[in-house]
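Researcher: Re-running this chain for the archive, since the previous output was lost when a drive failed. Same request as before.
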Amino acid sequence: MPFRSEVFNIATCSGTLSEVIDVEMVFNEMNRVLKHDGRIALMIIKARSRLHPKLFIYDARDLVRLFSRYKFKKLKIIEIKPFYIVAKGEKYRPIGI
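Model: Regenerated structure tokens:
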């Protein structure tokens, strides 16, 4: 993304994660542009949804693993059929920074 590092308080992603082939790049870029105490809000269509026949679908466990892998914490995942909403995910801030 054409933004400086650590400039945003929040990053949002609504209905696009299932369309992305390189999820690692998406999470790395969100991590890069978010401030140390930045948050992410994400909406994704649930796995096994008949409304969305795409290949890249996630369930709640997948979301927890993804966010943990990219050092997000304090997840709050809400299910609103046929979606999962990550209403809160805080960027990891190492102690002493």
